[in-house]
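Hey, can you fold this?
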Amino acid sequence: MDARALFDLLADGDTLTVVCHNNPDPDCLASALALGRIAVAAGIDEYDIYYSGEISHQQNRAFVNLLDIDLSRFDEAAVRDREPGDLLAFVDHSKPGANNEVPEDVSVDVVLDHHPADDVQARFVDHREDVGATATILTGYVRELDVEVDETLATALLFAIRRETLGFLRGVTVAEYDAAGYLHDRIDEDLLHRLSVPSISSATVDAIADAIANRSVRGSLLVSHVGRTSERDALPQAADYLVTLEGVDTAIVFGIVDDDIHLSARTTDARVNVGEVLAAAFADVGSAGGHSEMAGGEIPLGIFADYGDDGPPLVDIVERVVTARLYEALNVDEEDER
């Protein structure tokens, strides 16, 4: 980590645009907020945080609303038509066109990320796959640079670290505990509690119930789907819940959201890397990947266009094709069901 190099790069800039990944989560949003604070400390008067997709998960909505984070919808012109002093940064993702709407030919100035990726290019790159959260990386920067960490920023970063590591139970490292120790005395405890227990919509409950009802288990692998849903963020919540089922150590849940198939995977099996599994199963038809313990994917529904455009028949076809690809990637016998 070279905090001073990042600070000097920002100090030479005039403006900063921080682009979140599609459908940003607390780790991404807290990291963007922290980078913006560093930019202000470096003398940048104006910074913007852009996002694409939706902020639909109840915790993510609460995070934005309770912390009053100023977000703008992604504007391609703002990242393409930049002046020399207009800096572009990615947090919690690393490459143009991968889980973001930035054109692949756009140059990036700053990348701060912990997700697996190859050949990350930027003027400043801090890409650490061995830490549990991007917010951990940003906590290190504000700490080393002695940037003011008020209650809002401290609460945002600590909540993001807790959420990304599933309460310090998934992918956690010593760095997360060290960051949490630094942030703890600076947080707003009431705000942290409200972020941790947001209300849940009935549609999300229904989607999770569908995932429970539609599950199939082969050995220690559970695969399920929610059919069509507007609750994209119910998929990771369902996967988090189903991987705790007795006898299950890998859970993969998928569903049709608008014009795409979304997948979410979780595992507690050290022999399984679900990021590699999803990439192997779907890289040829969509985008998929992630960490060894948690991963996600998105497949355009257009590949099923010949089967029709709505209704149970299409859902059935998607279920059969997606499940078959997952079983093949995991070398699972389709007949071994319980």
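Oh, and this one too while you're at it.
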Amino acid sequence: MTPVKPALLSANRVHVAFPGLHGAPDARAVDGVDLGIRRGEIVALVGESGCGKTTLARALLGLVAPTGGGVVFDGRPLEYSGRSLKAYRKRVQLVLQDPSGSLNPRHTVYDAVAEGLRIHGHRGDEQAAVAEALSRAGLRPPERFFLRHPHELSGGQRQRVVIAGALVLEPELLVADEPVASLDASVRGEILALLLRLRDELALSALVVTHDLGLAWNIADRVAVMYLGRIVETGPVEQVLTAPRHPYTRALLSVLPEAPGDPVVLTGEPPDPSRVPPGCRFHARCPILAGGEAERAGVAEACRTRDPGILTGDDTVQVACHWAAAR
């Protein structure tokens, strides 16, 4: 039996809460998450807007300190001193969804990619490093792009410049927040193929944050589905997306164009992280509970009153659902 590799980056019972205004309850944006990412692995973190996935990504990057739990990178707890974070962010780089907002319109492509090298005091050949990063990102010949400005590039080319700016520091892990959301459909596949190629060529790890389960299917080794601050289902992407067990995952999948049957329309109010309900946090919107299936399975009371608990961060198929566990 092949031993399981330890996680390169892991969240251990991470909580992130923001103070409420005018005496309101704290907003529990991340409410207890275990999640591991191994070397050379792409993990998709999926959920609708407001579920806490971007806040979790920011906590993993050290941009926001957890209010509970912690982050471990390469076997060591993440420290929040300036020097430690600077060293950490050389090894873990962020790729944002909007390349137009990420790139300074006054800077050339060369300066945009070289910025990280200058921040981290790179001592080698800067021009060679920039050229190699642009080439790896698919902008060839790289010298042709050195003096261009963002407005002279297509959306896909701008996103490749952003990726080159991350690659130039030779990171071990990328955190990509909706990396193709702002791109045309014709370009999305090219950027996803680029991320897969970088994983294969450089043994890069990646956390891809997205609301799109179709994107997760095309790029990820493993998927983690997030709802109201918690991971509610996780496992290898093929197993989770071909046989989803959590009603929320089923609802997300049902709206994909190729999904069989009618889309599942979730009732009730969108999740509010300052008012996490008792029991299963999805129960107020759960079609299984509303349709009587949970009652017939004998778990309706548990759905309303008993927290299913925090899933572990390993690669096994797991679900935080009383009804799924009873089947």
